[in-house]
Design brief:
Largest sheet: 5 strands, mixed
Structural class: alpha+beta
CATH class of one domain: Mainly Beta
CATH topology of one domain: Neuraminidase
CATH superfamily of one domain: DNA gyrase/topoisomerase IV, subunit A, C-terminal
Oligomer: single chain
CATH architecture of one domain: 6 Propeller
Number of helices: 16
Helix content: 25-40%
Strand content: 25-35%
């Protein structure tokens, strides 16, 4: 073969192989997408799930069947092995919707596997039998080996895909549809059919909390955040009672241990007490704040996970990305269409039954059956005679009489003929006519019929399927603010290095790996760097601290000498934002400039200095006091005010100064339960560093706290939060559930312990705080009764209730009734010391 022909043959052969690979890949990709990974929009099922349900329907006799037997039955339809069938069956059984289970089916919360198929049993649930099967409306196709018929899709009259969720990885695409609440899906379907707006959000069997702010209707690009509920059992113990969707107790515990090993949280022990309910106990290390630890658990462990939905379904044999709103609307329309088909089939059956019952009535009432007694030549002649006898009555019928109708009449037993009750036939016809009328009405009012169908589903199966996952908006947690400070930072001041590996040098403090460090040198250079093993700053380091971005209260007081002129300047400045690793010159920029004096003041304190000039200088006064409080706080790049043009020998600290900053103003964010200075929520007033907060909870406890911003409060439990004044009198009304009466008491806080809750109402099951205020002259409004029986009473509490000890039971106010409501008369707030009424 010539060289040219050889090259041509290779080229043609290579093109053929490439084409084959291309076709094979497309065939495989199409098969995986359509037949394995992605659910169909019509019934929300993948093929293996549909075949399992069809097999279970064939086997259904109301009793449980061994899962091994169900798997074997399903293999008649499914071309894959028993493992994939068993896994899909267990997955559906764990969702507790279509399948009733018996035996150990595992636990999605703990990750425990189900027992072997020969040990566990299953059957179709009543719900599945109601919504998923109807042979008359099912489209059929041959199974993979051509031996049996199987459904193309099941006639699903419920948004199953959204209720169960779906997840699958195909070739080139994937799907992830999150499960939604059963009752909410039905309510949304009803709203859609009525032309109203609706919203649906994920709901998980595992419970917890979910932030749906970025859900984006379940489309690509959306995201939800899921958290566990973490309870503070006491100041040293936290308890987790659920797990996020897709996380097991063992993986959750592993993430907590890993975060502890990495130094991001600091705990003493984690104990898994999970039995029937999830319970993970976390014992904190001594001195560790439970509030900061809770935030750190959300920031660094699987106590909070982010899930990105991606709703992809098969529509007309093609994958299509949709929103959950579209999926619900299509499901509702599909259900309405299936109900229409069922009504039309039922109408046809009723009309056919009416036709035959009317024929039967005429046959016996008009004694047409006697044609059977006459002598006719052939059987065909008999049938013709009967047909002729019906001619006068054909106008009463709604369709033509067929030969099959007449044959059916002649096959009735003789004994039945003589026992026939014509009145009974008339009653049957009237009943059929009423049913036909109702079916026609339902067809004309199909939307109302579909709404009634959904309402019946909700009434029949909705109990016990209420929302398990609480919808909340989550606050953003800054990882740097909650990371545990367990990394030791060292400094070599002379050589100008800081780092975690300089263990032979001076120990500064402990910080976290996520912190930024601000450093100042004698040259007047400022730099902010990340924590590292060894970082060069510059020689003669004079101050190192953890840098807090946007900190407007930490004030730096500095005196430096300008290297060019010898003049000394003083400046006060804040550092709120910088570029990391950039050098900032705080002097006028000369290389020989030097810092005489430097302090960092967390609350804007302004000290008094004694400045001593060089004895050889010509200045008349060689020692004088300098007051930083006389200076304004300016930007870090400001030159500062001139202190002296003469050389300074030394600068000495003389006297501590007061803060030159105004008192800090605080607000309570009643959405997230956080203190803040950004004016979010309820104003609490102005505070100095020594003042405290009083928090009163609906369980009848009070707590004194400091102003630490990392504290967490449950806003649903807080009845009152305000600046604490030990002289202020608290007035409280609470329910004594044992005596079924309301008690009232007035008292002052006599304790001083911080972060400790004290119960000030009578202890007992069902006792709860109804109303509380710190108003000096409280007026209580009591409303009782309903409608025409409604009554209101105004009580000036201070006139008849004396101030007592905080442990006192109090005085009886009124008997308990369900209709009683209480509120304080709201007064105009005069200043920030006037308490808020809750």
């Amino acid at each position: 073969m010539s060289k040219a022909k050889s090259n041509e043959w290779v080229h043609q052969n290579d093109a053929g192989v490439q084409g084959q690979y291309r076709n094979w890949f497309l065939d495989y990709a199409s098969y995986v997408i359509l037949e394995r990974a992605v659910p169909a929009i019509e019934d929300g099922l993948k093929p293996v799930q549909r075949r399992i349900l069809h097999s279970m329907k064939e086997m259904d006799d109301g009793r449980f069947n061994k899962v091994a037997n169900i798997i074997g039955q399903s293999m008649q339809y499914h071309p894959h092995g028993d493992a994939s069938i068993g896994e899909a069956l267990v997955n559906m059984g764990q969702k507790d919707l279509l399948i009733d289970t018996q035996g150990n089916w595992g636990d999605v919360r703990t990750g425990d596997d189900a027992a072997a198929p020969r040990y566990i049993e299953a059957r179709l649930s009543k719900f599945a039998l109601d919504v998923a099967f109807n042979n008359k409306t099912t489209e059929w196709q041959l199974s993979y080996d051509g031996r049996k018929n199987e459904p193309v899709t099941l006639p699903m009259k419920f948004p199953l895909l959204l209720a169960q969720g779906a997840e699958g990885i195909a070739v080139g695409l994937s799907t992830k549809i999150l499960p939604h609440n059963f009752c909410e899906l039905i309510d949304a379907s009803i709203k859609y059919l009525k032309g109203k707006k609706f919203e649906i959000y994920p709901d998980f069997q595992t419970g917890g909390m979910i932030d749906v702010g970025n859900y984006n209707e379940g489309k690509r690009g959306g995201k939800v955040r899921v958290r566990v509920n973490i309870e503070e059992s006491d100041k040293r113990t936290l308890v987790i009672r659920n797990v996020p969707y897709g996380v097991t107790t063992s993986s959750l515990i592993d993430s907590i241990i890993k975060a502890n090993d990495q130094g991001k949280i600091k705990i003493k022990k984690v104990t898994d007490n999970t039995a029937a309910e999830v319970e993970i106990q976390i014992d904190l290390a001594p001195g560790i704040s439970p509030d900061i630890t809770i935030d750190a658990l959300y920031a660094f462990t699987d106590c909070e996970v982010s899930i990105s939905p991606n709703a992809c379904v098969i529509v007309d044999q093609k994958p299509r990305f949709m929103s959950v709103h579209e999926l619900l609307c299509i499901s509702a329309d599909n259900t309405k269409e299936l109900l229409r088909k069922e009504l039309e089939i039922k109408l046809g059956e009723l009309q056919e039954k009416w036709h035959y019952t009317s024929l039967e009535k005429i046959f016996f009432e008009e004694k047409i059956y006697k044609e059977l007694e006459k002598k006719h030549e052939t059987w065909d002649k008999v049938l013709e005679a009967i047909d002729k006898a019906f001619v006068p009555f054909k106008k009463q019928l709604k369709r033509e009489i067929t030969r099959e109708d007449i044959v059916k009449l002649t096959e009735k037993p003789v004994r039945r003929i003589y026992r026939l009750d014509i009145d009974e036939l008339n009653e049957q016809i009237r009943g059929l006519e009423a049913e036909i009328k109702q079916v026609k009405y339902d067809l004309e009012h199909l939307v109302e019929f579909a709404v009634a169908y959904y309402e019946n589903l909700l009434k029949k199966y909705g109990k016990g399927r209420e929302r398990k996952t609480e919808i909340r908006q989550f606050e953003a947690i800054q990882a740097k603010q909650v990371a545990i400070a367990n990394t030791k930072l060292y400094v070599n001041r002379a050589d100008g290095f800081i780092g975690t590996s300089l263990k032979k040098d001076e120990l500064l403090f402990e910080c976290s790996d996520l912190d930024d460090i601000i450093v100042f040198t004698r040259r007047g250079i400022m730099k902010v760097v990340r924590v590292g093993e060894k970082v060069y700053i510059g020689k003669d380091i004079i101050h190192v601290a953890v840098f807090q971005k946007n900190d407007e209260r930490t004030t730096y007081n500095m005196i430096y000498v300008d290297g060019a002129t010898g003049t000394s300047y003083a400046k006060r400045f804040n550092v709120t934002g910088i570029t990391r690793d950039k050098e900032y010159d705080l002097t006028k920029g000369h290389d020989k400039s030097r810092v005489h004096y430097f302090t960092a003041n967390p609350n804007g304190e302004a000290e008094v200095l004694s400045i001593i000039l060089s004895p050889n200088c010509p200045a008349r006064i060689k020692q004088f006091d300098f007051y930083f409080e006389e200076m304004e706080i300016k930007g870090r790049s400001a030159m500062g005010n001139q202190v002296t043009k003469y050389p300074i020998k030394t600068v000495k600290f003389k006297e501590a100064g007061r803060s030159t900053l105004s008192a800090i103003k605080l607000w309570f964010d009643d959405k997230f339960g956080r203190l803040n200075t950004e004016e979010k929520g309820i104003s609490l007033g102005s505070f100095d560093g020594s003042e405290r907060l009083l928090v009163i909870y609906n369980d009848g406890t009070y707590e004194l706290t400091d102003l630490e911003m990392t504290q967490r409060f449950d806003p649903e439990k807080v009845l009152l939060i305000e600046k604490f004044d030990p002289e202020r009198v608290i007035t409280a009304v609470y329910l004594d559930n044992d005596k079924l009466q309301y008690n009232i008491k007035r008292f002052r806080v006599e304790t001083s312990t911080l972060h400790n809750k004290f119960l000030f109402i009578k202890e007992g099951d069902g006792n709860r705080l109804e109303a509380v205020t710190t108003d000096s002259t409280p007026v209580l409004m009591i409303h009782t009764g309903r409608g025409a029986q409604a009554k209101s009473q105004k009580i000036k509490v201070a006139d008849f209730v004396e101030v007592m000890g905080w442990k006192a039971v109090g005085n009886k106010l009124a008997d308990y009734t369900k209709s009683t409501e209480m509120e304080w008369e709201v007064k105009t707030k005069k200043d920030d010391t006037q308490p808020e009424l809750f």
